[in-house]
């Protein structure tokens, strides 16, 4: 398996390479949650484009407050952003921006990947989960912030990561024949994310105007699938995932009726057999 030793990021080298893109780039051996750390940093006045990487997390979290298993061969990254001029209502679409950045990063690492709406990177013949994204608004006031978190499996995960709450098995870049060099992957991901977020910010958070909506749709394997959508309270709906709209919502055709769902509306989206 290529690069199974999963070399760790070099903090000094990352800072030097990204000094014109990020206000700060820090790497820690372990923390509870990089998102929680940067939410606290935002409250303390940390600068726009502050990035924190951890080699391990002890209290990682995902969507709907689920836990996130963080094996020591992964990459756990959060970026604090203060996108002046972007309405807070559009902050959630940053998860889609991150999704496109992840697809490009995987490609650079030698892996073909797709996106499962709303926030998963899938890879391999069994469409296993390779990464997840979580965007959290951090504070309000005249300069609201958002923390964008990404958990990416880089080196082999083995049996350390059980199937997630949605039943998806775990995989990694290395397990799909790609690199396990976490420094190279971190540099690639932070570079891609910077470029795409700048386009998103310049367009006022409008995915279509930034040229990112078509890119996301092209990589979204959920589109065109017959799906079962599990809703809070135990109900569900079934239909064709026909569209992702400009606000990042999924449109499902249920027997001819268009149902529009936000990420917060759903528990799981699963393809039907």
From TrEMBL:
PROSITE patterns per record: BPL_LPL_CATALYTIC
BPL/LPL catalytic domain ranges (all copies): 26-201
Molecular functions per Gene Ontology: biotin--[biotin carboxyl-carrier protein] ligase activity
Coiled coil regions, renumbered to chain: none
Pfam families, per the entry: BPL_C, BPL_LplA_LipB
Signal peptide: none
GO CC field: cytoplasm
Taxonomic superkingdom: Bacteria
Sorted UniProt keywords: Biotin, Ligase
SUPFAM superfamilies, per the entry: Class II aaRS and biotin synthetases (SSF55681)
EC number: 6.3.4.15
Gene3D superfamilies from the UniProt entry: 2.30.30.100, Bira Bifunctional Protein, Domain 2
Enzyme class: ligase
Descriptive protein name: biotin--[biotin carboxyl-carrier protein] ligase
């Amino acid at each position: 398996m290529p690069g199974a030793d999963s070399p760790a990021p070099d903090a000094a080298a990352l800072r030097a390479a990204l000094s014109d893109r990020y206000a700060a780039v820090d790497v820690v051996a372990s923390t509870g949650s990089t998102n929680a750390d940067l939410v606290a940093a935002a409250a303390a006045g940390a600068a726009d484009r502050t990035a924190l990487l951890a080699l391990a997390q002890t209290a990682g979290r995902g969507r709907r407050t689920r836990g996130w298993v963080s094996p020591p061969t992964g990459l756990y990254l959060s970026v604090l952003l203060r996108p002046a001029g972007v309405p807070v209502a559009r902050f959630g679409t940053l998860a889609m921006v991150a999704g496109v950045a992840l697809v490009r990063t995987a490609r650079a690492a030698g892996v073909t990947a797709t996106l499962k709406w709303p926030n998963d990177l899938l890879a391999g013949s069994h469409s296993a989960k390779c990464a997840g994204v979580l965007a959290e608004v951090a504070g309000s006031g005249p300069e609201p912030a958002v923390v964008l978190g990404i958990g990416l499996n880089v080196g082999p995960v083995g049996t350390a990561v059980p199937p997630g709450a949605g039943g998806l098995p775990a995989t990694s870049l290395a397990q799909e024949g790609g690199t396990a060099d976490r420094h190279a992957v971190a540099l690639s991901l932070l570079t891609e994310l910077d470029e795409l977020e700048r386009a998103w910010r310049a367009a006022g958070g409008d995915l279509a105007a930034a040229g990112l909506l078509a890119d996301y749709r092209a990589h979204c394997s959920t589109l065109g699938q017959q799906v079962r959508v599990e809703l809070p309270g135990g109900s569900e709906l079934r239909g064709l995932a026909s569209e992702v709209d400009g606000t990042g919502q999924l449109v499902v055709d249920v027997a001819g009726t268009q149902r529009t769902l936000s990420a917060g509306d759903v528990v799981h989206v699963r393809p039907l057999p």
